[in-house]
Amino acid sequence: MGMEEGIKDNAASAPNSRPTNQLKALLPMRVLQVFLLFFVLVLGISVISMHMIKYLKIQTLAPSTLISTYDERITLESLIKPPLNGWHSMNDSELLWRASMEPRILDYPFKRVPKMAFMFLTKGPLPFAPLWERFFKGHEGFYSIYVHTLPNYRSDFPSSSVFYRRQIPSQHVAWGEMSMCDAERRLLANALLDISNEWFVLLSEACIPLRGFNFVYRYVSRSRYSFMGSVDEDGPYGRGRYSYAMGPEVSLNEWRKGSQWFEINRALAVDIVEDMVYYNKFKEFCRPPCYVDEHYFPTMLSIGYPDFLANRTLTWTDWSRGGAHPATFGKADITEKFIKKLSRGKACFYNDQPSQVCYLFARKFAPSALKPLLKLAPKVLGF
């Protein structure tokens, strides 16, 4: 009996224990499901939060470039592409700083065609623009043009002109003062923004070419020297303008004089725009009757790069009449004989060899000289 009751009791309790075991087995599954659900929820919130933070950050820094930021790519072409026109929003400090950036590896990783930068320093109009148009015609890709005028002047060249949109931001210029050299440095700095510019020629509105473009390009590109006049001149107009306050950076024996109109290579152009040592000395201690545009560049370059200079200019000028300004030639002066005489002046040296070709440009010419020059250009000037 007792045994039977015990068996019955066990039999009765067995059905009650099965649900309890099933519940214990289901509990871990429930916990795992809740945990997975929670994990997925947290992960989703995290992903959404990261995208929101990135979105808000982009909106704060550059709202207008939200979409283009992801698509923008820095390419070599974007770094070396020259400005489309001469105008920009940089001030002088920003411009000189940007222009002083120069690659230190001399082997270019792209096909570079060296160009000549023609820099016109003028008060306003370019009366000989039609003559220069003929000079440049057919030589696209081998030159670039920069025009520095008075700040309030705006040119009106047609879009077909080589001078169209080549005017650069400018400042007022006073004759014989440092503002003249500031304008020249400004022209050099703008031209240096084009990595393909290798040679830099400074001209005025009263300058004309004496040779065709091909001749000028070959003459300059094949020269081992830059054409900057730099002479040690005695007398009141040379050493007489020196101030001992220029020392110790510039001594009397290092003082030089040269023509304002020059042609220099890229390395010397960079040296000029980044200079602050000689600049401050000349600005403070070379004032009229010391004319800084005749002394600053010739002196600093002859100190730093004496073996790089031809010590002569490529621009013919007539000082024989005396006075503070050179002679000006008008319509009545323009003859075939006169123009030929200018291009073949007195003997000079080219690449250390005697040469009869000493000048490629000439000044000063009055606007009335334009028509006879255009008439003589095909026969005498070669374009």
From TrEMBL:
Lineage of the organism: Eukaryota, Viridiplantae, Streptophyta, Embryophyta, Tracheophyta
A GO molecular function held by the record: glycosyltransferase activity
Keyword Glycoprotein carried by entry: yes
Signal peptide: none
Record's keyword terms, sorted: Glycoprotein, Glycosyltransferase, Membrane, Transferase, Transmembrane, Transmembrane helix
Chief localisation class: membrane
Name of the protein described by the UniProt record: Core-2/I-branching beta-1,6-N-acetylglucosaminyltransferase family protein
Residue ranges of the TM segments: 31-53
A GO-annotated cellular component: membrane
Domain of life assignment: Eukaryota
Membrane topology listed for this record: Single-pass type II membrane protein
Compartments (UniProt record): Membrane
